[in-house]
Design goal:
The protein is α/β, with parallel strands linked by helices and 225 residues long. 19% of the residues lie in helices and 36% in strands. It has a six-stranded mixed beta sheet. It has a five-stranded mixed beta sheet with strand order 1-2-3-4-5, with helices on one face. Strand 1 and strand 2 form a beta hairpin.
């Protein structure tokens, strides 16, 4: 590993990792990065090398990211895989907050209505046939699910659907779909159930009690001893 004031280049089995200091100016950083990569490229093998760039507590605009990518691409056999920073924009922070929020709604979702939230959904009410609820995270329904529920709608396969009465016309988690069961559940047997993606990449419906073992991190609160 060769180290300089602003740029550290570390070789890994997968390629190169560039650690860029976050206290110098952007101009100084570019200049030194260019020089260090030029020196390093003389000893690089003929095979293509993947490059990961870490910029610490420095925020880079999209234009600056493209400049760094282009600078690295100009060197022999280097391909930029990622540029990572500890700093995010206000918009990105707000998006993360939304995705981690639990939205509580008290209403009945009737036929033709669609309720969608970015994070977890807690619905106090029923989802009637023809109604749809969607969430980027988990869906918890304190009522009857007789319509469509789509949890993890942005690709989260760890998401679950919980309902006081599980009689959906369709269940979806991430990109997995489970049609309505062949046998109707007796409405009098109101036992809460959960749906999740199992090891075979299929949606399984089981009693609620299994959820604490399948998804131990599903709550924000951790039990004390």
């Amino acid at each position: 590993m060769k180290k300089n004031q602003n740029v550290t280049i570390k070789g890994t089995k997968d390629g190169l990792t560039l650690h860029l200091d976050d206290s110098c100016s952007y101009g100084e950083l570019k200049k030194e990065l260019d020089r260090k990569l030029s020196e390093n490229s003389r000893s690089v093998e003929d095979r293509l090398l993947s490059v990961r760039v870490q910029v610490g507590n420095r925020y880079l605009t999209e234009e600056q990211q493209e400049e760094l990518k282009e600078l690295i691409r100009q060197k022999k056999n280097l391909i930029v895989e990622s540029i990572s920073s500890n700093v995010i924009t206000k918009e990105e922070a707000e998006k993360q907050k939304e995705e981690n929020e639990i939205v509580s709604v008290a209403k009945v979702i009737r036929s033709g209505q669609v309720l969608e939230v970015a994070g977890d959904l807690l619905l106090i009410g029923d989802v009637n046939p023809g109604g749809t609820v969607m969430a980027g995270g988990n869906i918890f329904i304190m009522g009857a699910l007789k319509g469509i529920a789509h949890a993890g709608c942005h690709g989260n396969k760890e998401a679950v659907v919980v309902a006081s009465l599980m009689k959906p016309s369709q269940l979806r988690i991430s990109n997995c779909i489970n049609r309505a069961p062949d046998k109707d559940q007796d409405d009098e047997k109101r036992e809460m159930e959960c749906a999740y993606i199992d090891e075979d990449d299929q949606i399984t419906v089981d009693r609620l009690q299994v959820l604490m073992h399948l998804r131990p991190n599903i709550t924000r609160l951790q039990g004390g001893s």
